[in-house]
Amino acid sequence: MASTKGQRLQFDLDDDDLKLFCEEADEQIELLDTSLVQLEGEPDPDLLQQIFRAAHTLKGSSATIGHKKMASLTHAMETVLDAVRQGRRRPGSEVVDALLAGLDALRVLADEVVTGIDSGIETARLEADLHAVLESHDETEAAAPAEASGVAYRLDPEQAEAALAGMDNGTSLYFLEVAIAVECQLPSIRSFQALQEADALGQVLATWPEREHVEAGAGEFSLACFLLSSQSDEQLQAAIQAVTDVQSVQARSIAPEDIDKPLTTTSQPAHPGSGLTGRPQLTLVEDGAPADGARGSSRKATQSVRIDVERLDGLMNLVGELVIDRTRLQQIREQLSAVLKDANLTELTENFEETTSHLARVTDELQEQIMRSRMLPVRSVLTRLPRLVRDVAAKCGKKVELVTAGEETELDRSVIEEISDPLVHILRNAVDHGIESPEERRAAGKPETGLVTVTAWNQETYIYLSVKDDGKGIDTSTLRRKVVEKGLMTRDAAESASEQEAIQWIFLPGLSTAKQISDVSGRGVGMDIVRTNIERLNGQITLHSTPGTGSEVIIQLPLTLATTKALMVVANATVYAIPLVSVTEALADHEADIHTVNGRKTLRLRQRLLPMIDLARALGDGRPRQMEAGRFVVAARHGERQVAFMVDRLLGEQDVVVKSLGHMVGNRRGLTGATILGDGTLGLIVDTASLVSEQAALATPA
After folding, report:
1. How is residue 630 annotated by DSSP?
2. What DSSP assignment string belongs to 350-382?
3. How far apart are CA 228 and CA 174, in angstroms?
4. CATH, range 377-558
5. Contacts (Cβ under 8 Å, ≥6 apart) of 49
6. So what's the pLDDT on residue 466?
7. How far is the C-alpha of 702 from the C-alpha of 700, rounded, in Å?
8. Would you say domain 563-698 falls under CATH 2.30.30.40?
9. Can the peptide bond before residue 447 be classed as cis, meaning omega within 30 degrees of 0?
10. Longest dimension (CA), the chain
């Protein structure tokens, strides 16, 4: 077949529909990416239902806009998933590999809707691979009991008693099975409508899925229930069959003597080739009651609304202006209070102070609420990791299990967008460098499967991400040899460094401990970029490692990049904001223990010598010094390094709104942005990380 790559594509949707399709497709593809990896070897029924629902949603939306390739591929994936759901196939690596290959193609096909250009991807081979998976059976599947294709239902004692009471009053007990058509785009709504119709026909005693599940909009393509009714089975079938998209209804009369017996149904296709069954796909415990997993999935649907990110950014900018005006009002209040103190205008002064205080409080609350609306669970990053670990482990010939915790920890969306790549680098290194091969782990007395744990948590105004592995740790002897070979350090300096200092060399540019270069790692362009990106976010990264036990990387990040707490200082008549996360102490220079070492000024602080840096001069301020009466020293740190900034005045702590320096100014060494102060003037936000890293070059001569 001739390639169609590069040809223009036309889909039946406008701009609003396009946006809706992209949002839904991204959401469902992300869900499939995570869930399919979790499914491998673990046929959890709730997870299967979630996966099947996502695939069906993608099929429906792609068919609606006329994307035939995407609809056909998702239908093939849906068929395989249904085989797993019915117990005809185990979700082994062969099945998951075929589904993941299809998912990768779905990503490309979804992009075609945005670009309008044919990617040239052929789905026929992928569909053939998926169908081939259905035809292959392993020994475990061949030995599966025949009764696995059936499901048993039973009323609990209280429901059975109600059924007998109803039958004594002249009503009949029926068991209803309702199948929704496979082409239905709204199966949950049709399932709910069928349940409503059953309610109108009599008394519904029990449903599968549970009533709460269906009413919450989480119903599926099948519904089963026990119903007390005075209608005949033909009348019941006709009434429910009248509901749109209901494909088939079966009504079975239950005799009084059979009420306590579990009712078993067999799997019958809704229609030939549909891949869907005419009975509820449920996992039941031995006595026929719904499994705990099915009950646990029933929860009240949350109310939410999609908001364009640009609108949130606009609101955040407006709130930032309010914060600036709040600070200015507070300054004006202080000035007016001093002026009007002796003017016998106490009531006016108090009213003004009360109003400004209330405005400040409301502004703070508004800022917090807007900040929360920009927050996303870090789960949106963590859900991408299982697939990554699976792929890297397969390439390296290793067995690795990924465990995540703290998925609900919230982080500003701007930070989430920036943290994804560094986290991927760290995780790839953990699997490639940290975790040993199965043979090495057995020899070391460890389980064949390595463990990587990613944990997220909040502490004060920061978020922490930990990536921990139970591998071999970092070989510092190799690091010492590498830094000498690369010319980054002399042999004597490398040998005299402590273990903890040597471990930090992993962040040096161009340094790698990989024995050979591969498509996973080995070029030494990973961890230095990770540290650079994290420091650019005003974050910090620390690394701990124990030989033979494993390593842990901890990332500390601000919750948001829109605002930050800072220590405001003045240096040579310019106001600077030093991020409070890096400030350890501030003191007057006459109280400081200042010494001269090798012709440079240093501050002795708690048994450590800190190089002293003139802040204004380090930031390129070449104007003549405007000396003030007293000077101050601000001790700051980044990682294990510390410096002491010399400034003229301390203005105190303040929440500052971070503004970009703009294209006219561009990136400036030592600065991360600017902020507008309460009096309308500009303050510059200091990039502590870069100044601390360059401490040797910036140290002030004695």
Report:
1. -
2. HHHHHHHHHHHHHHHHHHHHHHHHTEEETHHHH
3. 6
4. 3.30.565.10
5. 85, 220, 281
6. 93
7. 6
8. yes
9. no
10. 105
Please enumerate in sequence order all residues whose Cβ is within 8 A of that of 29, keeping only pairs 6 or more positions apart, or say none: 58, 103, 106, 107, 110
Q: Note whether 312 and 293 are within 8 A (CB).
A: no
What pLDDT, on the 0 to 100 scale, is given for residue 306? 64
Residues in the chain where the model's pLDDT stays below 70: 1-4, 41-43, 136-152, 264-306, 309, 341-344, 460-461, 510-526, 562, 626-630, 639, 662-667, 678-680, 695-702
- CA 58 from centroid of its chain's CA atoms: 21
Q: Give the pLDDT confidence score for residue 226 in this predicted structure.
A: 92
Alpha-carbon distance values, 431 to 425, 508, 550 (Å): 10, 20, 11
- 512 CB-side CA count, 13 A: 18
Contact 375, 411 (CB under 8 A): yes
Cβ atoms of residues 475 and 510 within 8 Å: no
What SS3 class is residue 569? strand
Fill in the amino acid letter for 414: S
| Beta sheet of 540-546, edge-to-edge order | 399-405, 449-459, 462-469, 550-558, 540-546
d(CA 279, CA 207): 12
pTM: predicted TM-score of the whole model, two decimal places: 0.58
**56 labelled catalytic:** yes
Both tokens of 151, joined, read 């499901």
Task: Characterize the bridge pairing of strands 399-405 and 449-459.
Answer: parallel
Residues 6+ apart with CB under 8 A from 371: 316, 412, 559, 560, 562, 563
From CA 688, how far away is CA 637, in angstroms rounded? 8
| Element of type H or E holding 131 | helix 124-135
Calpha distance 123→104 (Å, rounded): 11
Q: Which amino acid is at 379?
A: R
The catalytic residue among 78, 215, 436, 552 is: 78
Give the C-alpha separation, 253 to 228, whole Å: 10
Looking at the DSSP bridge assignments, the partners of residue 252 are: 175
Locate 31 and state its tokens.
């869900």
The pLDDT score that the predictor gives to residue 414 is 76
What's the pLDDT score for residue 460?
67
Nearest 5°: the CA angle 585, 684, 529 is: 80
Alpha carbon 113 to its chain's center: 25
Predicted local confidence at residue 621, as pLDDT: 84
Say which DSSP state 513 is in.
-
Residue among 314, 318, 324 at smallest CA distance from 674: 324
Which of 40, 56, 67, 552 does the annotation list as catalytic?
A: 56
For 570-604, write each residue's pLDDT tens digit.
998 899 999 887 888 898 888 888 888 888 888 88
Break the chain into its structural domains and give their ranges.
15-147, 150-281, 310-374, 377-558, 563-698
User: Are 150-281 and 377-558 in the same CATH fold?
Assistant: no
Q: Is-catalytic flag, 78? A: yes
Distance separating alpha carbons of residues 621 and 615, to the nearest angstrom: 9
Q: Does domain 150-281 correspond to CATH entry 3.40.50.970?
A: no
CATH number for the segment(s) 310-374: 1.10.287
Of 213, 425, 429, 538, the active-site residue reads 429
Task: Specify the CATH number of the domain 15-147.
Answer: 1.20.120.160
CB of 342 within 8 A of CB of 336?
no
Confidence (pLDDT) at 265: 58
Neighbours of 671 (CB within 10 A): 18
Helices 68-85 and 93-115 sit at what angle, rounded to 10 degrees?
A: 160
